[in-house]
Write a structure and sequence with these properties.
single chain; 309 residues; alpha+beta; 8 helices; globular
Length: 309
Protein backbone atom coordinates (compact mmCIF):
# COMPACT_ATOMS: atom_id res chain seq x y z
CA UNK A 1 0.00 0.00 0.00
CA UNK A 2 1.44 3.35 -1.07
CA UNK A 3 1.33 6.69 0.75
CA UNK A 4 -1.34 8.88 -0.88
CA UNK A 5 -0.12 12.04 -2.59
CA UNK A 6 -1.86 15.41 -2.42
CA UNK A 7 -5.45 15.61 -3.64
CA UNK A 8 -6.82 18.61 -5.53
CA UNK A 9 -10.52 19.18 -4.82
CA UNK A 10 -12.50 20.84 -7.60
CA UNK A 11 -15.95 22.17 -6.76
CA UNK A 12 -18.27 24.52 -8.60
CA UNK A 13 -19.44 26.71 -5.70
CA UNK A 14 -22.31 28.21 -7.70
CA UNK A 15 -23.88 24.86 -8.69
CA UNK A 16 -27.33 24.10 -7.34
CA UNK A 17 -27.73 27.59 -5.81
CA UNK A 18 -24.93 26.91 -3.36
CA UNK A 19 -25.48 23.18 -2.96
CA UNK A 20 -22.20 22.54 -4.75
CA UNK A 21 -20.29 24.48 -2.11
CA UNK A 22 -21.96 22.55 0.71
CA UNK A 23 -21.30 19.17 -0.94
CA UNK A 24 -17.68 20.14 -1.54
CA UNK A 25 -17.23 21.09 2.11
CA UNK A 26 -18.53 17.70 3.24
CA UNK A 27 -16.25 15.84 0.82
CA UNK A 28 -13.22 17.93 1.85
CA UNK A 29 -13.85 17.26 5.53
CA UNK A 30 -14.27 13.52 4.95
CA UNK A 31 -11.12 13.21 2.84
CA UNK A 32 -9.12 15.02 5.53
CA UNK A 33 -10.65 12.86 8.24
CA UNK A 34 -9.43 9.85 6.28
CA UNK A 35 -5.90 11.25 6.30
CA UNK A 36 -5.56 12.85 2.84
CA UNK A 37 -3.85 16.17 2.18
CA UNK A 38 -6.43 18.22 0.29
CA UNK A 39 -5.79 21.35 -1.77
CA UNK A 40 -8.94 23.42 -2.31
CA UNK A 41 -9.27 24.47 -5.95
CA UNK A 42 -12.67 26.15 -5.86
CA UNK A 43 -12.94 29.73 -7.04
CA UNK A 44 -15.67 32.31 -7.11
CA UNK A 45 -17.12 30.70 -10.22
CA UNK A 46 -16.54 27.80 -12.63
CA UNK A 47 -13.88 29.55 -14.79
CA UNK A 48 -11.87 30.36 -11.66
CA UNK A 49 -12.14 26.76 -10.48
CA UNK A 50 -10.95 25.53 -13.86
CA UNK A 51 -7.92 27.82 -13.77
CA UNK A 52 -7.02 26.53 -10.31
CA UNK A 53 -7.39 22.95 -11.52
CA UNK A 54 -5.10 23.65 -14.46
CA UNK A 55 -2.42 25.04 -12.16
CA UNK A 56 -2.62 22.17 -9.67
CA UNK A 57 -3.20 19.15 -11.90
CA UNK A 58 0.48 18.60 -12.68
CA UNK A 59 1.43 18.33 -9.00
CA UNK A 60 -1.55 16.51 -7.50
CA UNK A 61 -1.75 12.73 -7.32
CA UNK A 62 -5.46 13.05 -8.06
CA UNK A 63 -8.01 15.67 -9.01
CA UNK A 64 -11.30 14.97 -7.23
CA UNK A 65 -14.42 16.55 -8.70
CA UNK A 66 -17.58 17.15 -6.71
CA UNK A 67 -20.30 17.98 -9.21
CA UNK A 68 -21.97 17.02 -12.45
CA UNK A 69 -20.87 16.22 -15.96
CA UNK A 70 -19.97 19.81 -16.80
CA UNK A 71 -17.42 20.04 -14.00
CA UNK A 72 -16.06 16.56 -14.72
CA UNK A 73 -15.68 17.63 -18.37
CA UNK A 74 -13.67 20.64 -17.20
CA UNK A 75 -11.42 18.37 -15.12
CA UNK A 76 -10.91 15.98 -18.03
CA UNK A 77 -9.35 18.88 -19.99
CA UNK A 78 -6.64 19.10 -17.33
CA UNK A 79 -5.88 15.43 -16.55
CA UNK A 80 -6.35 13.59 -19.87
CA UNK A 81 -3.01 12.31 -21.08
CA UNK A 82 -1.30 13.03 -17.74
CA UNK A 83 -0.37 10.84 -14.75
CA UNK A 84 -2.88 12.69 -12.53
CA UNK A 85 -5.83 10.47 -11.62
CA UNK A 86 -9.44 11.65 -11.80
CA UNK A 87 -11.81 11.07 -8.89
CA UNK A 88 -15.54 11.71 -9.26
CA UNK A 89 -18.13 12.36 -6.55
CA UNK A 90 -21.35 12.60 -8.62
CA UNK A 91 -23.44 15.59 -7.53
CA UNK A 92 -25.07 16.88 -10.72
CA UNK A 93 -28.21 16.62 -12.81
CA UNK A 94 -27.21 13.83 -15.18
CA UNK A 95 -24.04 12.23 -13.78
CA UNK A 96 -23.66 10.32 -17.04
CA UNK A 97 -19.86 10.20 -17.01
CA UNK A 98 -19.87 8.49 -13.62
CA UNK A 99 -22.71 6.21 -14.70
CA UNK A 100 -20.92 5.24 -17.90
CA UNK A 101 -17.75 4.43 -15.94
CA UNK A 102 -19.73 2.29 -13.44
CA UNK A 103 -18.86 4.54 -10.51
CA UNK A 104 -21.12 4.67 -7.43
CA UNK A 105 -24.04 7.10 -7.62
CA UNK A 106 -26.12 8.43 -4.77
CA UNK A 107 -24.52 8.79 -1.34
CA UNK A 108 -21.36 10.95 -1.60
CA UNK A 109 -19.91 9.16 1.45
CA UNK A 110 -19.80 5.93 -0.58
CA UNK A 111 -17.90 7.70 -3.36
CA UNK A 112 -15.43 9.25 -0.93
CA UNK A 113 -14.77 5.90 0.76
CA UNK A 114 -14.07 4.29 -2.63
CA UNK A 115 -11.77 7.17 -3.67
CA UNK A 116 -9.86 7.01 -0.40
CA UNK A 117 -9.32 3.25 -0.71
CA UNK A 118 -8.11 3.66 -4.29
CA UNK A 119 -5.71 6.45 -3.31
CA UNK A 120 -4.23 4.43 -0.44
CA UNK A 121 -3.80 1.36 -2.64
CA UNK A 122 -2.38 3.37 -5.54
CA UNK A 123 -5.16 1.90 -7.63
CA UNK A 124 -6.81 3.36 -10.70
CA UNK A 125 -8.63 2.23 -13.82
CA UNK A 126 -7.31 3.37 -17.20
CA UNK A 127 -10.02 4.31 -19.68
CA UNK A 128 -10.13 5.88 -23.11
CA UNK A 129 -10.87 9.54 -23.74
CA UNK A 130 -11.78 11.28 -26.98
CA UNK A 131 -9.95 14.22 -28.53
CA UNK A 132 -12.07 16.58 -30.64
CA UNK A 133 -10.39 18.64 -33.37
CA UNK A 134 -12.29 21.55 -34.91
CA UNK A 135 -11.79 25.11 -36.08
CA UNK A 136 -12.31 26.08 -32.42
CA UNK A 137 -9.24 24.12 -31.32
CA UNK A 138 -8.90 20.86 -29.41
CA UNK A 139 -11.06 19.52 -26.57
CA UNK A 140 -11.34 16.25 -24.69
CA UNK A 141 -14.46 14.36 -23.68
CA UNK A 142 -15.19 11.19 -21.74
CA UNK A 143 -18.74 10.11 -22.62
CA UNK A 144 -20.72 10.98 -25.79
CA UNK A 145 -20.64 13.69 -28.44
CA UNK A 146 -24.09 14.77 -29.66
CA UNK A 147 -24.34 16.37 -33.10
CA UNK A 148 -28.02 16.45 -34.11
CA UNK A 149 -31.34 16.75 -32.32
CA UNK A 150 -29.62 15.37 -29.22
CA UNK A 151 -27.36 18.44 -29.19
CA UNK A 152 -30.44 20.69 -29.41
CA UNK A 153 -32.01 18.76 -26.52
CA UNK A 154 -28.86 19.23 -24.46
CA UNK A 155 -28.74 22.96 -25.21
CA UNK A 156 -32.38 23.43 -24.26
CA UNK A 157 -32.04 21.38 -21.06
CA UNK A 158 -29.00 23.43 -20.04
CA UNK A 159 -31.02 26.62 -20.44
CA UNK A 160 -33.73 25.45 -17.99
CA UNK A 161 -33.54 25.39 -14.19
CA UNK A 162 -36.67 23.31 -13.76
CA UNK A 163 -37.48 20.47 -13.41
CA UNK A 164 -34.51 19.06 -11.50
CA UNK A 165 -32.80 15.82 -12.45
CA UNK A 166 -33.17 13.73 -15.62
CA UNK A 167 -36.78 14.88 -16.11
CA UNK A 168 -35.34 18.09 -17.53
CA UNK A 169 -33.76 16.14 -20.41
CA UNK A 170 -36.99 14.23 -21.02
CA UNK A 171 -39.07 17.40 -21.34
CA UNK A 172 -36.43 19.05 -23.54
CA UNK A 173 -36.40 15.97 -25.79
CA UNK A 174 -40.18 16.03 -26.17
CA UNK A 175 -40.00 19.72 -27.08
CA UNK A 176 -37.26 19.30 -29.70
CA UNK A 177 -38.53 16.07 -31.26
CA UNK A 178 -41.85 17.78 -31.94
CA UNK A 179 -40.01 20.28 -34.18
CA UNK A 180 -36.89 18.70 -35.65
CA UNK A 181 -36.65 16.47 -38.71
CA UNK A 182 -32.99 15.94 -39.55
CA UNK A 183 -29.75 17.32 -40.93
CA UNK A 184 -27.53 16.21 -43.79
CA UNK A 185 -24.21 14.84 -42.58
CA UNK A 186 -21.10 13.40 -44.13
CA UNK A 187 -19.83 10.84 -41.62
CA UNK A 188 -16.34 9.45 -42.15
CA UNK A 189 -15.47 6.35 -40.12
CA UNK A 190 -11.78 5.39 -40.39
CA UNK A 191 -11.93 6.42 -44.05
CA UNK A 192 -15.33 4.86 -44.84
CA UNK A 193 -17.82 7.59 -45.79
CA UNK A 194 -21.59 7.76 -45.21
CA UNK A 195 -23.74 10.54 -46.61
CA UNK A 196 -27.27 10.74 -45.25
CA UNK A 197 -29.93 12.81 -43.57
CA UNK A 198 -29.97 11.94 -39.90
CA UNK A 199 -31.84 12.78 -36.75
CA UNK A 200 -28.58 12.41 -34.89
CA UNK A 201 -25.11 10.87 -34.95
CA UNK A 202 -23.83 10.15 -31.44
CA UNK A 203 -20.10 9.44 -31.09
CA UNK A 204 -19.86 7.37 -27.92
CA UNK A 205 -17.02 6.40 -25.63
CA UNK A 206 -19.43 5.29 -22.87
CA UNK A 207 -23.04 4.13 -22.82
CA UNK A 208 -25.27 7.01 -21.82
CA UNK A 209 -26.13 10.68 -21.81
CA UNK A 210 -29.15 12.85 -21.04
CA UNK A 211 -29.54 11.58 -17.49
CA UNK A 212 -29.29 7.85 -18.16
CA UNK A 213 -30.47 7.50 -21.76
CA UNK A 214 -28.58 4.44 -23.02
CA UNK A 215 -27.75 5.64 -26.52
CA UNK A 216 -24.80 3.25 -27.00
CA UNK A 217 -25.45 0.18 -24.81
CA UNK A 218 -22.35 -1.68 -25.99
CA UNK A 219 -19.84 1.17 -25.82
CA UNK A 220 -16.77 0.15 -23.84
CA UNK A 221 -14.37 2.91 -22.66
CA UNK A 222 -11.47 0.45 -22.55
CA UNK A 223 -11.57 -1.04 -26.06
CA UNK A 224 -9.90 1.75 -28.06
CA UNK A 225 -12.98 2.18 -30.27
CA UNK A 226 -15.89 4.60 -30.57
CA UNK A 227 -19.47 3.42 -31.00
CA UNK A 228 -21.14 5.72 -33.53
CA UNK A 229 -24.92 5.53 -33.29
CA UNK A 230 -26.61 6.95 -36.39
CA UNK A 231 -30.38 7.53 -36.37
CA UNK A 232 -31.97 8.29 -39.72
CA UNK A 233 -34.29 11.24 -40.22
CA UNK A 234 -37.74 10.43 -38.79
CA UNK A 235 -41.14 12.05 -38.62
CA UNK A 236 -42.26 13.29 -35.21
CA UNK A 237 -44.37 10.28 -34.18
CA UNK A 238 -41.65 7.78 -35.08
CA UNK A 239 -38.96 9.88 -33.38
CA UNK A 240 -41.00 10.14 -30.17
CA UNK A 241 -41.63 6.39 -30.18
CA UNK A 242 -37.92 5.73 -30.63
CA UNK A 243 -37.14 8.07 -27.74
CA UNK A 244 -39.29 5.97 -25.39
CA UNK A 245 -37.00 3.00 -26.11
CA UNK A 246 -33.73 4.80 -25.40
CA UNK A 247 -33.47 4.22 -21.66
CA UNK A 248 -33.66 0.45 -22.11
CA UNK A 249 -31.44 0.37 -25.18
CA UNK A 250 -34.20 -1.21 -27.29
CA UNK A 251 -33.87 1.54 -29.90
CA UNK A 252 -31.09 -0.51 -31.49
CA UNK A 253 -33.76 -2.88 -32.84
CA UNK A 254 -35.16 -0.14 -35.09
CA UNK A 255 -34.19 -0.26 -38.79
CA UNK A 256 -33.65 3.51 -38.56
CA UNK A 257 -30.70 2.97 -36.19
CA UNK A 258 -27.23 1.78 -37.20
CA UNK A 259 -24.16 1.36 -34.99
CA UNK A 260 -20.67 1.67 -36.43
CA UNK A 261 -17.31 1.29 -34.68
CA UNK A 262 -14.24 3.34 -35.50
CA UNK A 263 -11.13 4.91 -34.04
CA UNK A 264 -11.54 8.22 -35.84
CA UNK A 265 -14.83 9.86 -36.80
CA UNK A 266 -15.24 13.04 -38.87
CA UNK A 267 -18.58 14.84 -39.08
CA UNK A 268 -19.23 17.43 -41.78
CA UNK A 269 -22.45 19.18 -42.84
CA UNK A 270 -23.80 18.32 -46.28
CA UNK A 271 -25.98 21.42 -46.42
CA UNK A 272 -26.89 24.51 -44.40
CA UNK A 273 -29.42 24.00 -41.62
CA UNK A 274 -33.05 24.82 -42.30
CA UNK A 275 -35.27 27.41 -40.60
CA UNK A 276 -35.67 25.25 -37.47
CA UNK A 277 -32.03 25.87 -36.55
CA UNK A 278 -32.14 29.56 -37.41
CA UNK A 279 -29.90 29.07 -40.42
CA UNK A 280 -27.23 27.17 -38.47
CA UNK A 281 -26.47 23.56 -37.65
CA UNK A 282 -26.90 22.34 -34.07
CA UNK A 283 -23.81 23.04 -31.99
CA UNK A 284 -22.15 19.74 -31.05
CA UNK A 285 -22.08 18.96 -27.34
CA UNK A 286 -19.79 16.48 -25.58
CA UNK A 287 -20.26 15.48 -21.93
CA UNK A 288 -23.19 17.90 -22.16
CA UNK A 289 -20.95 20.88 -22.98
CA UNK A 290 -20.56 22.78 -26.30
CA UNK A 291 -17.38 21.80 -28.16
CA UNK A 292 -17.27 24.09 -31.17
CA UNK A 293 -19.08 23.55 -34.45
CA UNK A 294 -19.10 21.25 -37.47
CA UNK A 295 -16.98 20.13 -39.19
CA UNK A 296 -15.03 18.30 -36.49
CA UNK A 297 -13.06 15.11 -35.94
CA UNK A 298 -13.29 12.77 -32.94
CA UNK A 299 -10.22 10.65 -32.21
CA UNK A 300 -10.22 8.02 -29.45
CA UNK A 301 -7.05 8.01 -27.34
CA UNK A 302 -6.68 4.65 -25.57
CA UNK A 303 -6.00 4.71 -21.82
CA UNK A 304 -5.82 8.53 -21.76
CA UNK A 305 -7.57 8.81 -18.39
CA UNK A 306 -6.70 7.34 -15.01
CA UNK A 307 -9.89 7.06 -12.98
CA UNK A 308 -9.96 6.29 -9.27
CA UNK A 309 -12.27 3.32 -8.75
Amino acid sequence: MSTPGPVGLLVNPTAGRGAGFAAGARVRAELRRLGHAVTELSGADLPAARRAARDAAGEAAALVVVGGDGLVHAAVQEVAGTPTALGIVPAGTGNDIARGLDLPLGDPATSVAALSAALRAGRHRTVDAVRVHSDHGQRWYASILASGVDALVNERANSWRWPPGPARYTLAALRELALVRGVGLRIELDGHVLRRRVLLAAVANTRCYGGGLTMAPHADPTDGLLDVVVVDELHTAAALHLFTRLRSGEHLRSPAVQVHRARTVRLEPLEPAGPRAGGRLPRPHADGEPVGSLPLTCEVVPAALRVLA
